[in-house]
Amino acid sequence: MPDGQVALSDPSGEERRSLQGKAIRGAMWTGLHTVISLPVAVGVNLVIARVLGVVDYGRLAYLTLLITTIGSIAALGVGTATLQFGAKAHAAGRHGEVRELLSASSGWRLLVGAPVVSLAVVLLVDLDGPMLLAGLLFGVWIPSALGGLGIALNIENKTARGAQLAIVINLVTQCAALVALFGVRTADAVWLARLMAGSASVVLLYVFIDRRYRRAVLAPRNPFRLPRAFWRFAIPTGLAAIISGLVTSRSGVLLLEWFGDPVSVGLFGLAFGVATHIFAPAQALVGPLIPAVSSLSEVEPGALPAALLRSLRCSAALVALVSAAALPLLSALVPVLYGSAFGPAADMVLVLGVVTAVSVVTAPLSAFLFARLGGMRLLVTDSLCLAISVGLAAALIPHLGAWGAIVSFAGGTLARTAILLRSEPSVLGVRGGQLIPTLGPLLIMSAVVSLTWIWTASLASQPILRAAILFVVDLPTIILGARLARWGLHQPDVEALRRALPPRLQYVASLALRPMTVRESDPTGLV
Length: 527
Description:
By secondary structure, the protein is mostly helical.
């Protein structure tokens, strides 16, 4: 058939297994990336916090979040829509359509996104002239020109390759941050060094993208010629992403900065950063799911319910293990690792960690909603949750400072999770009774971690002893609870994860996953 005319009218099980394999390999390599990069990021973050102090660390968090938030607003869902429509077209062999999408999205970033972000940075960020110009170049214009490379890699379901490159990019970025920290010792310099290193390293993606798609990314075209169906999905999805980012990200940093409380900015920024680092391996599962689920919905939509349950089971089991091993431990050690000035952040890390765990486990629901092009549903959901979050923030931050920002984050995030759990599985025919055992490890983890933290509260002045007790008690208790309730991974889940790994790692993976493997098969038949 001519280019752009190929259709998969009779999808086979082999096609579904291929898509599943790519998704799992992508998730596993992304997980490996986070396992390698996480200690580096935590270590670098620890050094930066100690050298800069609470107030300047808050300044760094503010600069980082501001440019990310403005960029999300200017993107208006074009990147997400390009990925969704592109993944479907690529899976069906419509390569000409993919090229048009990539060129038009590049045009949007350069003609609309970059000017808008540049103007906002000039108006909102207090930087000297050379620092401002460098920030605009490396933080706005170069990422706008090359941003389509990452989208193209995901469209081709090469998320495993992207994760491998991300390991290199992260190491370069963290090294650049340390050089700037000890060379200049300012938050602005660290921020700029990260931007420069990240922008320069993204060029590596160019080598691994299909030649036709590579040329399309570097040939921007008029974005307003994209079809109406594209914009009907992009605009509400983009608005939903903006709103969701305000609800579930560290947007409390912006509110605390505007209320003029620099100490609370630093405490909240550190607590949120530590909680995010803890769950980075589990969050790694979501990125590769988005293009894979979109492709699966195009070639075999009947497989989506099983894919949803497997995704939730794997993320719940992984989050439970990570939480048991790391969340109470790192929370208790905050005063030791980051200094006594950050001591009040210990309780904040634990609370933010539990809320983040719930959000991470249910994050795959968004990938399935995207696959159905449910942008408007997502927009309504996120708008409601933003109203909850903003209402709590306005009422509590002036009185409670960082804790007001934490309650605001928790209220919006948990409301979003509840709505998605109520609506999305039912659309796919998954019954509510199937979700309880699927999410069981998350429920056990939340109860155990919270209760043991309260139980050891009297040891707050002895953080090392408290951390040791929590580590010894939490991990076996959570594993024992999951096994007694028979809530965890099924053997087919483990086999699917093993197949994505190199042969030398498969036995190690089986041993690591065995404590959370509770069933030989899925009694529902959805595997």
